[in-house]
Amino acid sequence: MDISKENIDKVGYLNENFKIFHIKDMKDIKFDYHHHEFNKITILISGDVDYLVEGKSYKLKPWDILFVSNTEIHKPIINPEKFYERIVIWINPEYIESHNYGDDLFTCFNISSKNKSNLLRLNQTDLDNIKNLLFSIKAADNSSDFGHFILKNSLFMQFLVLINRLSLKNDNTSDGVEYDETIHQIFNYINENLNKDLSIDTIANKFFMSKYYLMRKFKSQTGSSLHSYIVQKRLIYAKSLIKKGYLMSDACIECGFKDYSSFVRAFKKSYGVSPKHYLDRINEFEKNPFEIE
After folding, report:
1. Please, which residues bridge with residue 76 across strands?
2. Which pLDDT value is given to residue 172?
3. In the chain, is it the N or the C terminus that has fewer CB atoms within a 10 Å radius of its CB?
4. Counting runs of H as helices and runs of E as strands, what totals does the chain give?
5. Residue 9 DSSP one-character state
6. d(CA 235, CA 26)
7. Which residues fall within 8 angstroms of residue 129, CB to CB, at 6 or more apart?
8. 3-state secondary structure (DSSP) of residue 158
9. End-to-end Cα, the chain, rounded Å
10. Is the pLDDT score of 129 beyond 50?
11. Residues contacting 245, CB < 8 A, separation 6+
12. Which helix (H) or strand (E) holds 290?
């Protein structure tokens, strides 16, 4: 099923409530671990792709659905010798929050985190329903008929309700996912203690291993250094605090940096702007172009 008339430019940013891309390409691109300001759903159509999310590795099959929240660090490993075709859906978290009328439309993302699996694998009937909704959304988006914008948004709400219902009844939480249990526990420990001492020595002692073994094991399992992961997660947390109105000094302490100068250096190195000017330039910052995985 083609949900678009043609493949769109694969470099962009989210300046809408949601955006749906249908992409097919064959490129030799190496991604680093990263995160987005928005929540993302990736639906593989074809290709040879391993998707790494927070230390878990997913060997995707055609029409697998992968949920990645705006706080999860991830990267795809793509075989450049095969066409990589996928549907990518970007969702503005504030848009979802404004439409939570008693039921949390973040549930599908929360379930993926709770069950240690970002993957949803559907039967053919449920998958056909998903395809039909995506086709209808794209048709409304391409239309100029009366009420097309309202129709597009209402159809997308139907899509979110359906994908959440399917996530709630899904029981294949361990299908297609590989991860090391110790590394998974370390990920959880880091994410639950961002404002505390997360030195390599402290984590190594917590999990009864030498720090050198810990660093090697973490690197081999995730492709990222332990220090780099901790800094990225603290900065993601810092951005959320700044958006909530925290003072820069309070955000620095709350996200676990030892001193303000190291916080500013890390923030500016990652995002190209100081914490002090982040809110002033947030629209510009979030429009930095990047390749769509």
Report:
1. 51
2. 59
3. N
4. 12, 11
5. P
6. 33
7. 162
8. helix
9. 20
10. yes
11. none
12. strand 290-291
Tokens of 26: 């064959």
Please give the helix or strand (H or E) that residue 177 lies within, else none.
strand 177-178
Structure tokens that stand for 239 in this block: 């951005």
Helices 148-169 and 107-114 cross at an angle (nearest 10°) of 30
What are 198's two structure tokens?
């997360």
3-state secondary structure 70-94: CCCCEEEEECCCCCEEEEEEEECHH
Q: Which DSSP string corresponds to 199-260? A: -HHHHHHHTTS-HHHHHHHHHHHHSS-HHHHHHHHHHHHHHHHHHTT--HHHHHHHTT-SSH
Amino acid letter for position 162: L
Q: Is the pTM of this model over 0.70?
A: yes
Q: Compute the Cα dihedral for 156, 162, 167, 170 and give only its sign.
A: negative
Q: Which amino acid is at 191?
A: N
Quick check: 222 pLDDT over 90? no
